[in-house]
Design brief:
The chain is α+β, with helices and mostly antiparallel strands. It has two domains: 18-145, PurM-like, N-terminal domain (60s Ribosomal Protein L30, Chain: A), CATH 3.30.1330.10; 160-344, Alpha-Beta Complex (Phosphoribosyl-aminoimidazole Synthetase, Chain A, domain 2). It is built from twelve helices and twelve strands. The chain has helices at 6-15, 55-58, 65-83, 102-118, 169-178, 196-202, 216-227, 237-240, 243-252, 275-287, 317-327, 331-344, and strands at residues 34-37, 44-53, 86-96, 123-130, 135-145, 160-163, 208-211, 230-234, 269-273, 293-299, 304-308, 311-314. Strands 7-9-6-10-8-11-12 form a seven-stranded mixed β-sheet. The protein has a five-stranded mixed β-sheet with strand order 1-2-5-3-4. A hairpin with a 6-residue loop joins strand 1 and strand 2 (44-53). Helix 3 (65-83) runs parallel beside helix 6.
Length: 347
């Protein structure tokens, strides 16, 4: 039996108290956004998701209010992208102390607005409250065709694994920020954009999809458990990792694979393609001016492994995922444990 994921156990503990919604299409853990059948003659499912910024603010990972607002919106819209939805807009809850200065709140709102405008969508409304500390939560809603929606279910041996863009930048941003090596990083250093347009194209071809907001290894571990297949990453870091991530790895003497392990990801899409769909997909993405990243493949088994030459080296993805829960809100402990794993594992 595979080691249990602590986060999933906590979710299951909460969810077991709720009635199953008969109009919800996906089951628990099976999609980034909840898919709702609205009945009638509608050709679309309603896609709904919610995400909050808590540890990211309290730890200082995001400390610029414009970036905080931007990330709140993009984190929510990334879940819509992973099911292939067309966004309708965002609902926002903003809680902050009454003593909070207006320029800070203004920049928060501007960051949210700029993110929505980047994706050609809107803030639909929301709620404001007083609180002891800044707390932000969002709820993104969209529509996705019933004939071409995506979930995390559907991968099979023989599928090819792709990313919508290079990986690793989110984790090295977090590493630099939380270890005091960041200096005064500009927002442009890490300002991800939810892959809405790419998701709309991917939904026509992919067998399954999930975003990488928690890092690629976390994503692949989830897909592996749901689909009961082995996911292979090729040892091709120059192609898979963002150039800045590779540069930081060399400067900080970090193993490249470790950038895929951190819980702070890039909001890229990770998706699988049937071999007979791959050529048409590549041609369609090329016409759209987009170059996806081939990461690896799906084979028989139940693991997430690195392919180095003819050798398959399994990652202990349960350990990697669980240390984030065990460290709680202590980023120093979490980073320290990740670095220990990096030194212990030679790939």
């Amino acid at each position: 039996m595979m080691e249990q994921i602590l986060e999933n156990r906590r979710i299951d503990l909460i969810a077991r108290h709720f009635l199953n919604a008969p109009h919800r299409v996906n089951a628990i853990h099976e999609a980034d956004a909840e898919l709702v059948d609205m009945g009638g003659s509608s050709e679309n499912y309603l896609a709904v998701t919610t995400d909050a910024l808590v540890e990211e603010i309290s730890s200082g990972l995001y400390d610029d209010p414009s970036l905080i607002g931007w990330m709140l919106a993009m984190a929510n819209f990334s879940d819509l992208a992973a099911v292939g939805a067309d966004p309708l807009g965002l609902l926002v809850t903003m809680s902050y102390p009454s003593s909070q200065d207006e320029p800070y709140v203004t920049k928060l709102a501007e960051g949210i607005s700029e993110a929505c405008q980047r994706l050609a969508t809107f803030v639909l409304g929301g709620d404001t409250n007083q609180a002891e500390a800044v707390f932000l939560s969002g709820c993104a809603v969209g529509l996705v065709p019933k004939k071409s929606f995506m979930t995390r279910i559907g991968a099979k041996p023989g599928d090819k694994v792709y990313l919508s863009g290079p990986a690793g930048l989110g984790s090295v941003y977090a590493f630099l920020k939380m270890t005091g090596h960041a200096g005064k990083l500009p927002n442009s250093y890490f300002q991800p954009v939810a892959r809405i347009r790419e998701g709309q194209l991917v939904r026509q071809f992919a067998s399954c999809c999930m975003d990488t907001s928690d890092g690629l290894l976390h994503t692949l571990d989830t897909l592996m458990r749901l689909n009961r297949c082995q996911f292979i990453i090729r040892d091709q870091w120059e192609k898979i990792l963002h150039p800045m991530a590779l540069e930081i790895c060399k400067a900080q003497n970090l193993p490249p694979w470790l950038t895929l392990a951190a819980i702070h990801g890039e909001f890229e899409l990770c998706f699988c393609l049937r071999p007979d769909q791959e050529r048409d997909f590549v041609e369609a993405s090329s016409r759209a001016g987009w170059v996806p990243v081939a990461v690896g493949e799906v084979i028989e088994g139940k693991a997430v492994s690195l392919k180095k030459g003819d050798k398959l080296i399994p990652f202990n993805t349960a350990l990697i995922r669980n240390i984030a829960q065990e460290a709680g809100s202590n980023p120093e402990a979490y980073i320290g444990r990740l670095l220990e794993i990096g030194r212990e594992v030679v790939l």
